[in-house]
Write a structure and sequence with these properties.
96 residues; alpha+beta; two-stranded antiparallel ribbon; 5 helices; 4 strands
C-alpha cells in the first residue's frame, strides 16, 4: 500500500463501503463468477486505481461503480503480480 493511501484504507468510510460492497455482490469473486467459478472474494479492488490526484475524490474512492470484489489470484493478475508480496532488485536485496 502506498503511503498516501493509508489514511483512506484505515478510514471508517472505506471500511463501511468495503463491507457494504462485499455484501451487495454476494461475497464471490466477480472475475471468477464471469467464468462460472464460485470462489470467495477477498479484496475490494478499485477499477480506477487510487492516486495522489484522486485520493480525496469519493466518486473514485468510495463509489460502488469503481469497485469490484476479487479473489487474491484475480487481484494479482490485474496488478501483474505472481503471488509474491516482495521484489528482488538487481543487487539481490528483497523489498516489499
Amino acid at each position: 500500500m502506498k503511503d498516501f493511501a493509508k489514511g483512506l484504507y484505515s478510514s471508517k468510510a472505506w471500511q463501511k463501503t468495503r463491507d457494504a460492497y462485499k455484501r451487495k455482490v454476494g461475497g464471490l469473486c466477480e472475475e471468477c463468477l464471469k467464468q462460472g467459478i464460485y470462489k470467495p472474494g477477498e479484496i475490494v479492488h478499485h477499477k480506477e486505481h487510487i492516486s495522489q490526484a484522486n485520493i480525496n475524490d469519493p466518486s473514485v474512492t468510495l463509489s460502488f461503480d469503481n469497485l469490484e470484489l476479487l479473489c487474491r489470484d484475480c487481484h494479482a493478475k490485474i496488478h501483474d503480480r505472481r503471488k509474491r508480496r516482495y521484489k528482488v532488485d538487481e543487487m539481490g536485496r528483497v523489498w516489499t
